[in-house]
Amino acid sequence: MRTFKLLAIPALLSVLFVLTSATKISTEQERIQKSTRVMHDFAQMKEGIPAELLKNAEGILIIPKMLNGGFVLAGKRGKGVALVKHESGWSNPVFVTLTGGSIGLQAGVQAVDLVLVFKHRAVLSKVENGDFTIGGDISAAAGPVGRSTSANTDYKLDAEVYSYSRSKGLFAGISINGANISIDKSAVKSYYGDNHDSKTVFESTKSPNADVTALKASIAAL
Q1: pLDDT digits over 105-135, tens only?
Q2: What is the C-alpha separation between 69 and 124, in angstroms, rounded?
Q3: Environment class of residue 12 by beta-carbon count within 10 Å: exposed (0-12), middle (13-18) or buried (19+)?
Q4: How far, in Å, CA of 107 to CA of 144, rounded?
Q5: Helix residue ranges, H only, the chain
């Protein structure tokens, strides 16, 4: 009986290892899930991104839990996803990295969920092998707040990008300048395969899995 138990232990460990490996998610998948939670949180806010602005937007970038070390967020680094809108719906998410710049925040905030809304998808879809600077290459502004705010009559849509933040229950449009956005090429290839790049991902609206479908649904829910 003791011999049987000893022989059974390695088998049980092997089963546990397989089950653990099967439930472990990739870094890229986790990034998509966190971005989905950000969108759900934004949807629960009393004040939010104007519906009209989202209706006319052709691109969105989500950076979950970007850390802040003081009164402003300067020289920090955040990883997130970007999607562009086609007539058939939102594209699959492209993994992006935001670095540098200065983002005005409330004093004492330790982390912030950042969402950038783009008027034209070309700004994002053209960033295949390079990058761009917010406030330098493209104009940016703190986004208007209020779901019923009329983007046409109450706010001049003269910027290319509108930025929003959420932290500790506080939601607001914020100013963001000097931040650089680049494609996380290694993450794109890791998640989609070597035959994919940002261009092919931005052009595709067919969701590869449930996590991507949930992300798109959370954006549409806003």
Answers
A1: 545 545 788 899 999 998 888 776 677 788 7
A2: 28
A3: exposed
A4: 21
A5: 2-23, 27-44, 51-56, 122-125, 185-192, 198-203, 210-220
